Each structure stands twice: as structure tokens, then as C-alpha cells.
Amino acid sequence: MEVPEGFEEFVAGASSRLLRTAFLLTRDAGHAEDLVQAALTKAWLAWRRVDGDPEPYVRRIIVNTYATWWRRRWHGEEPTDVLPEPVGLPPQAAVDERDRLWRAMGTLPRRQRAVLVLRFYEDLTEAQTAHLLGVSVGTVKSQTSKALARLREDPSFDGRFDGEIHGKGVHR
Fold it and tell me: What element of type H or E holds 165?
């Protein structure tokens, strides 16, 4: 099959940003890579229909695919005698605020987590986030408010957020 015009350039330029979004949603490097690959495959198949900037379109594919994967998979525990190697943050980072924030983000409902990732990590506006998720701006505002309130109630933060995550500050 022939590669659609502009697709390779898009992948080369946007992959790191898309991977960051996927990692923030999944919190696992391997799952994030799989998610981006699946999203790029879907985008490649629909590339000729994409009008304008393709990045928001592909981000929406990532968010929707992420939600679909979660519903399909069983997330129960499987006992094992051998523990796997730890994945993700280096050992020295396990005690700093990033780890606490990730744990707290993991307790949020998926839609609230997606809103926070898109608004504060990807620096999208409320309108861009609403468009990407297919919801109203009011829904983005209420989901953001609920998510931040829930994070503030997390006892590991004592009602405050300090420090930075991947070079971007955590907004109050």
C-alpha cells in the first residue's frame, strides 16, 4: 500500500507529543507505545479524510481507544511467584511528589483524568479539550473542577500541589 501524503512527516513531528499523552493516560510506557501505534494505524486508514491539522484528530483517537481498551480488558490480579522488574519511574523518584501525583491521578475516573491530561499537560484550552472529547465546554469545566477537588482531598497532598511533572508545573 502507498503511504498517504504527509503522513510520515506528521508521525515524525508529532510522535513524541502523542506518546506523552498516551503515557499520561496509561501510566505505562509499553501500553502508551501500543496506544499510539493503534491510533496511528487508525489515522493512516482515514488520512485522506483528515482536514486541517491532524494532531487533534489523532489525540481524539488516542483518548477514545484508551477508553475502549479499558472497557474490554479484565483488570484483575493474577498471583505469581516471581515479581516483574519495576517499570516507569526510577527508584529515587518513587518518593517524590511526582509519584504521589501519579497515584492520585490513578484514582480519578477516566474522563476526569483525560480532561486534566489534555488541559494541564498538553496545554489545550477548554474549547480544544471539549472539541477533542466531544463534550461541551461546561462539561470540561465541571470535570476539571471535580478532578482538582478530588486531588486536593487526597491525604498524601495535604491539600497542596508542589513541584513539576515532566517539566510542566501542576496548576492549582
Answer: strand 164-165
Give the position of cell 501525583: 101
pLDDT for 50 beyond 50: yes
- Measured CA to CA, the distance from residue 104 to residue 150 in angstroms comes to 9
Give the three-class secondary structure for 52.
Answer: coil
Q: How far is CA 38 from the centre of its chain?
A: 14
Helix (H, G, I), strand (E, B) or coil at 56: helix
Secondary structure percentages of the chain, helix, strand, coil, to 5: 65, 0, 30
For 66-80, give the DSSP string.
Answer: HHHHHHHS-------
* Global pTM value: 0.51
